[in-house]
Amino acid sequence: MTSDAPGSSNVTPPSSVEPSRLHPTVKAVTERIVRRSAATRSAYLALCERMATRARGADRMGCANVAHAFAALPGADKFRVVSEKAPHLAVVTAYNDMLSAHQPYEGYPALLREATRAAGATLQVAGGVPAMCDGVTQGEPGMELSLFSRDTIARATAVALSHDVFDGMLLLGVCDKIVPGLLIGALHFGHLPAVFVPAGPMSSGLSNTEKAKVREQAAQGLVGREELLKAESAAYHGPGTCTFYGTANSNQMLLEAMGLHVPGAAFVHPHDGLRQALTQAAVGTVLAARAGQTGHAPIGRVVDERCIVNAMVALLATGGSTNHLIHWVAVARSAGILIDWSDFDELSAAVPLLARVYPNGAADVNQFQAAGGPAYVIRELVAAGLMHGDVLTVAREGLHAYTRVPVVQGASLTWNALPGPAGEPSPDPSVLRPARDPHAFTGGLKLLSGRLGRAVIKVSAVPEDRHLVEAPAIVFDSQEALQKAFKAGELERDFVAVVRFQGPQANGMPELHKLTPPLAVLQGKGFRVALVTDGRMSGASGKVPAAIHVSPEAVAGGPLAKVRTGDVIRLDARSGVLDVMLDEAQWQSREAQRPTASQRESHETGMGRELFAGLRRLVRSAEEGAVTWL
Description:
alpha/beta; Glucose Oxidase, domain 1
């Protein structure tokens, strides 16, 4: 298989902000981020430059170090990398067969090694990183390790790359915390080029809408465990990413928008012949991006302020996962770039919603891909001046390369332009629409603030008549308490569920996706309900209004710790307000409640949670990316 493997062409230097046709909001936000990040970004780039100017590893290290590094290589590869000074690539893999999305990675090292040898280079699997399935751990104690697994993956990536004999890296990961973790780790080796190698989504099974319906029926006791398991198994049924547009598939959209994939690699099925061609092309792409090549594109230069804004815009335009308001703050910080939720909020007011993919619509990611996928979205956003097109990427032609679709023609991998010019309808307007005629004229996320703190809400899937909920609070200190009250029939009324002590310091900030079915059932009965929490929802946040990631969190003395059952809460996604309707003097006189000793202990021991005690002490707030390494 040969390919016109994308390299890189002349692009505007990463320090430049301006195309004159850029949307004024995108331009203003980008410029503000550049100013805010000046000192940290400069220090980061200086470090990358110092690392880049060193001699290559096999020439710089002592003989014993070199011998250890390449001891297990076949003789020809050992001669090539040491004597012939051939480029040497690292693979960092998140392979396991616990995750359906990562199971296809089992054979990737051999495939990549073969392609590398054909290119006259060498390759080693530098290390593996842990990868947990949030679908398995939802509502279980293991979910309290999930967010912290991101920084554990970042550290494991750094350990793998610390062997320091590499000219580039190939990163194998797809799912929720794995891609952000790999990206954070890779950015701490910003002098090297990096290409992410995805594995693609599973084929469509039971529709996400039908799956959600059965879950709601199970929550009401209308179907039993056998029927529920049958439905779930029909939805999650084979290798590949889950087909809803949650965090994992949002990861893939953002990597395309950031120029870190072989163009168009995101949503091709694992067993499609095109997938193997794209995987092999990753080798040529990273080799073309290494130092000394005309397409030199180290990851620390690719991920600049404009690249981060492009990722934010792509998230908003597709109604992507709320988890990325945490993860991409941390990703940006790894490259010396400082962003916050106000940046997302301001962009959301200007970026149209182009995609309707479950839970933001009925379609799954395979239908999204068939309608034009990332290529259509990026083409529309660049043409509308809503993305920076003149950025450095790992591909030839900068971001323009990501507006084309990969195809195998004969023995070659090539890229074809989408039919028609920008602004043309997609093949399926119910899924994808052009920027001039979007599903909505604003993005899918909104910042909320008030006396209860700062939070975010995903409004793209919430009915318009539910964007404002004002109702008495019912306070829960765990998700289990809410589920128990629902099963006991105690929630048949208008209310705002305040689920607190779910933040990073308290218990690792688990996703509270198990609360979606009962709240959806109550909303379906006509009750006005909402959720306010310092925890996370899944990337599949849906039709119930949910103010999530409330910061500061309750365990740190945040305002949720002062809320009492019966207090009237106002959640207004239209005006961006999250408030408690109490007299100010009364509110100020309230004491913050603390979790009991037994509550704390229940989240601190068992299932390995003891090992993460230090991270709970170190972790920053959700709006600061919940990072544990600053």
